[in-house]
Amino acid sequence: MAPPLLMLEEKTQETHNLSLFSLKEKNHAYKINLVDQNLDDSQCVGSSHGWLAFLDEIDNPFLLNPFSKTQIHLPKSQTLPTIHSAYSSSKINKVVLCKNPSHDENYVVVVMHSIWCRTSLAFCRYGDEKWTNLESGIETLYDVVCCDETNTVFVLGPGPVVEIWDMNETMFPKKKMIIQDSCPRKLAKSNKIFPVDLYSTQWYLALSKSGQMFLVVRYIGEFVRYDGEVVYEGDTLTDDASEPLVCPYKTVDFHVFKYCFCEKKWIEVESLGNYAMFLGGSQSMMVSTKEHAELKGNVIYFTDDYWDRMDEDYNYGGHDMGIYSMEDGCIDPVLECQEQRIVPPPFWINVPHDHRL
């Protein structure tokens, strides 16, 4: 797998470009012009296998390959299986692919979508006109990833609990396994270190090439001062300032666990060795640093996917990205000139092997 590039979307009235930054050449961006794709009112909601997932002006999803300029229109959002409501519709917040549509017509598109406080999964295959519900027993979904080699979908929920679905069935996917073993001790005790009134969490699944499954918990300070201290919202108000202090949310730590299928338990991971992990709104990835010397080993590259707060303040949003060291817990910036507000937020994207920038 080629190392992902960091993608920033640039929109003006006259132009619409994608800027792709290599982690080797951070000061140089490869530009892709998308003016002819009519994406003015569309929003990117993810990336998988080198394809971008967009929602149009009425939240209908479609896929775009920015390298070949190919679009694939997906079933409309109104066909998502959900609780019907006259006042609310389901919102797609993550899209992943099983197999690459550029090379295999048997691809499957899986979406996480939410309405009110419930998150559900749905999927479609090539040629489908409506979404089909993936009848997960997990009421609150945190993440979903796909394994191309086995054509399986891994679904993460609180606990942690993981469902593994076989997408090879022609009629309907089959649930192969449910993992709901005891919570790792470090994770169970994390509320004492990261109290819920100061921090929020994002949970991810990642799969290695060798078939190992990783659980990653990301800790985000809700209001972080310039000196790095996490404070309460009320502490952003001062008697001297006419406006509240700007204290954006910020990632402060990660905990990583690996599931041992033999012992049926989660094991704390202290080092990723010669691997780098990529997290955010895109499908989570693990890449070997032996094969790609431009990457740092034993780190987590992450982008901002805190959708609930990304648009709440004009001073920040989309900004929370960095390179987390598993060795010492330090976080370095991805780009040298990293702004406080980046809209739309950046994503990781893979470049196809047959495409040269």
UniProtKB/TrEMBL annotation:
Pfam families: Beta-prop_KIB1-4. InterPro entries: F-box_BR-signaling (IPR050942), KIB1-4_b-propeller (IPR005174). It comes from the Eukaryota. Residues 20-325 form the KIB1-4 beta-propeller domain. PANTHER family: F-BOX PROTEIN KIB2-RELATED, OS07G0183000 PROTEIN-RELATED. This is KIB1-4 beta-propeller domain-containing protein. It comes from Rehmannia glutinosa (Chinese foxglove).
